[in-house]
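Issue: ligand-bound run for zinc ion - logging full I/O for the record.

Environment: standard queue, default settings, no custom constraints.

Inputs:
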Amino acid sequence: MTERTFGTLWGRALRLSCPRCGEGPLFIGWLRMHERCSHCNLKYERSPGYFLGSTYFNYGQTAAITTATYMTLVFGFDVPKEWVALPLGLYCLLWPLFWFRFARSLWMGFDCFCDPTEFETDDPNIENEVE
Ligand SMILES: [Zn+2]
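Outputs:
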């Protein structure tokens, strides 16, 4: 039986691996996900629109860093806002693309931590706990 503590799920999310077993990779390429875990058969998209929650992780992280950086540079160090606008604008465009995979992975880990019953099994041929 595998413990699914916050730390375990956090580590699995950062390794972009299955939140249930930690073995199967989530992604095939940069943006395309496997439908199911290759190790424990967990269906990654739990229901239609399931990954909408990951946009909060992505948007929230991008907005928080953009706001903090802007406030720190413009109000803390008197950097002209014209100098800050372009780099932060590029950050807002590029960072969500990079962070997309981690946002989905963190979302799945968060969901598994908050409601582990959803991750017990979705296949009658496998046991609840794989390891
Ligand atoms: Zn798995």
